[in-house]
Amino acid sequence: MFHKPRGVRRGGRRLRVFAVPLALALALSACGGGSGSDGKIHLTMTWWGSDTRHATTKKLIALYEKSHPNIVISPTYTGWDDYWDRLATTVAGGNTPDIIQQDFRYVHEYADRGALADLKRFIPSVINDSELDKSAMSTGRLDGRTYAIPTGVNAFALVVNPTLVKQAGVPLPDDKTWSWDDFVNTAAKITQATKGAVHGTEDMGYYDGGLQVFARQHGEDLFTPDGKPGMSVQTLTEWFNLIVKMRDTKAEPSASVTHETWSGGIDQSLLATNKGASSFWWTNQLSALSADSKASLELRRMPGESQAAKPGTFLKPAMFWSLSARSKHPEEAAQFVNFLINDPEAARLQLSDRGLPINTRLRDQITGQLSPADKKSATFVKEITPELAPPPALPPKGAGDVEKILSRINEEVLFNRVSVPKAVQEYIDQVKSATS
Amino acid sequence: MATSSVTARRSRSRSRRPRVLAHAGLILFGIVMLYPLIWMLAGSFKHTSDIFSHPGLFAKSYTTKNYADGWTANGTSFGRYIVNSLIVVTGAIAGNLLACSAAAYAFARLEFRGKKMWFALMLGTIMLPIHVVIVPQYILFSKLGWLNTYLPLIVPKLLATDAFFVFLMVQFIRSLPRDLDEAARIDGCGHFGIFFRIILPLSKPALATTAIFTFIWTWNDFFHQLVFLTDPKMYTVPVALRTFVDATSQTPWGPVFAMSIVSLAPVFGFFLAGQRYLVRGIATTGFK
Q: CB-CB: which of A21, A44, A94 is closest to B139?
C-alpha cells in the first residue's frame, strides 16, 4: 500500500510544477475549510461493511445526535476492499477520521504511523470498562498503550450443513475429541458417498484463520508476541501436507473449483450454494451463510483441539474502534465510542453485526433478540469460551499482507506448481520481508 | 463467354460460403463476449439467493424488486448518485475539451524552447501510476479545503492533465494542412483566431473522441471518487455501488446487479450517440 515518506517526497516535485495554477486556485478558494461555524462539535467516522451495517450505524448516529444536540457526526463508509485504500490515503493526507473502525491486522501499522490516539487516559473515566471482556480488551494494547477497543468477539469454527451430512449417510465424529485426520476422512467420505455432488468440505488454505488455529495448537502462532514471524518449518510443512491431502482425497473440490469459489466471497462459497457440507468461517458469518443456503447450519469446534497441548481457538475481536491521534475533540469522540459499546439501546440496534458485544452483560442481554442463526453463534461462543486460550497480541505492521501471501502460495500448492517444501520456504521468506 | 460466366458464378459461391461462416463465427464470438453482461442482466431480475445457487441464465421465478430495492438502498435515492456522476462527467468533459485542445495546439503549431522535452515529459505523466500521485494530490486538495466537493475531480482537467487526449489531438492537428493557418494569418488572425476559427472546427472528430472517452473513463473512475468524496450524499455511481459489496459479509447481489445495469445505461447511450463521430474521426485521420 502507500508508504508515506516516498509518496510525500514525489509529491514535492509535482507540487512545484503545479505551483502557478495552485496559487491561483488558492486565491480563489480562500473561503474553504471553515467547517463548524454553527457552534457544534463536528466528528467524522468511518467504517466498512455491507448495506445492513450502513443502515444500523446511521441509526446509531441519529440516536446519539438526538441525545447530544451539540454533536454532529459525519459518516463515510464503503466495502472492505476499498476501505483500506481510502483510509491509507486520508491518513497520509493528514485527514484521519475522528472515529475509525479498525481491524486486528492493521492496528499496529496505523499505531506506528502515529495515526491512532492512546485511549488509556479515557479509561475508565469516559470509556467505562467494568463490564468489558478483559481478555479481548488486552488485544487493543501495544507497548503499554491502548490504541483500540474491540467492538465484539468471534471465534473461528467449522460450519456444518447437517442435512447434507445426513443425506450422505456419514456419521459426524464428536467435535470435542476429533483430530484433523478424523475431519479429513469424514469429509472425504461425504464426497465419496454423494459421488462428488456434495464435497465434504472447502479448501481452508486461502485464509489465515485456519492456519492460525493450527499454529497455536502446535504451540506457535502467526507471529511471536514481539512481532516476529512465528511459524516453524515443521508446522508449515504439516499444514501444507494437510491441504494436499484434502485435495487428493477429494475431501475438497479440485483446485480450479476452489479457486473460483474462493474469489466469489462468502455468497459464492460451497456452503452458501449447498455444494459443500462444511467449511471454516468466523462465527458471525453463520447468519450470512444460513441466509444464502436457506439451510439450518450448525457450528462445530475446530479439529485437533483435544490432541493439542494448548487449544488453538480464541475469541478474536471482530473489529475495533480507534480514535484519531489528531482529533480536535478526542473526549467527545471517546464518549461516542463509550455509547457504541456500553449503551443498551446501541447494543439492541447492532446486535451481533460487529461481533458478539464486548460488553459481557449486554452480550447476554441481546442473545434473546438475535436471529436464529446469530443465536446459535452466541450459544456456541458461550459454550466454548471456558475451553479457550487467551488471544494473541496484535500482529506487527505488514500483517495485513499475510493473507495475500498465503492465498498466493496456497493456490500454487493446489495447482501443483510448487512442492510443499518450496511453498514453506516461500511463505517464510515473504512473511519476513512483508513485516520487516 | 460461357466459361467465363461459369468461373464467375463459381467464384461468387466460393466467396459467399466463407462469408456466411465468418459471420456465424463472429456472431458466436459476440455472444460469448456478451454473456457476462447478459448474465448480469438476468441476475438483476433473480432473487438474490438464486443468483449463485442457480448460476445459469434462467431461474424459477423473476422479480423486479431488485430495482426498487437498489434505487432506495442506503436511504438515498440512486438518482442522486447518477446526478452526482453527471456533474463530475460534464465538468470533466468541458475541462478536457478546452484545456487539452489548447495544449495540443501549442504542441502542434507553436515553436518554443524545449518543446520536444516538454512533450516527452507530458507523455511521461501517462506512465505515473495513480498510487504514486494520489497521496500528494490528496494533501493538496485537503489543504485547499476541496475535499467532499467535485473540484478535485474537475479542476485538474482544466489544466490538461489527461496527457492521452493532448497526444491524440496533437496528432490530429498535425494532420491538418498548415496552408489553412497561413491563409487565416494573411486575413489577420492571431493565434486565438486560428485556434477558434480554423483548428477547433476542423478538429471535431478528435474533440468527439475526447468527449466520449472522457465520459466513459470519468463515469467509471472509481478510485479518485472514492478518496475525494467521503460524504455519502456526494457519492458518485461507482462509489455508491461499492458500498453494497463487502467480501466479509452478505452482499445484496440482486440490487447490486440491478443498479449496475442502471448505471450502464448512460454510458451505453452516450456511446451510441457519439459512435458515428468516433468512426468519422478514425476515417479522416486515416485519410491524410
A: A94
